[in-house]
Task: structure prediction
Amino acid sequence: MKVIIGTKVGMTQIIGEDGLVTPVTILQAGPITATQIKTVEKDGYNAVQFGYGQGKNLSKSVTGHVKTASVTPKILKEFRTDSETEMKVGDSISVEAFEIGDKVTVTGTSKGKGFAGTVKRWNFEESRNTHGFKGNIRRVGSIGSMYPQKVFKGKKMPGRMGHDQVTVKNLVVAYIDKENNILGLKGAVPGPKKGIVTVEGKE
Result:
């Protein structure tokens, strides 16, 4: 399986032999350990659950769940498979599973922006600030209609912005450091520094 869980470190640049500069996001990736194998017969679908990191103060249920794998992970994530895998509980995956040039899909949680108005959240235009206007140029304005007398669901309104699950496809592996478990992906990866991301590549 070409999957791994990592922590976003930040962005840097790589200068190639041809002199081209490539923006790269650095991930402290893996190793991850298989903590549970799911099958169609037992669970209704095929998947492998992996543990990542070093957790503290794990609950008794989680401690018992990962006891067979002999790990105390901070993060548990599940990856579905098309067919039954040959992996067993306790097997691990590192950045060695990837190669430079591989295209991967990265999933993470975007930065949270808090409560935001429509100008910032939906890119609305401000109202004019001349000719006797009352001054609140960032207000929403009319949101209703004469018929029906309601506001439709999905109306673009002020509200919480960010902190959503975001998936970016077709990022390219540009750098691998097997000794330090570092993975470099060309381009930007969703989420803040120290955010947890998952990386999935095609077999």
Summary: The first helix runs from residue 40 to 43. Residues 48 and 202 are 16 Å apart (CA to CA). The chain has a mean pLDDT of 91. The chain is about 5% helix and 40% strand.
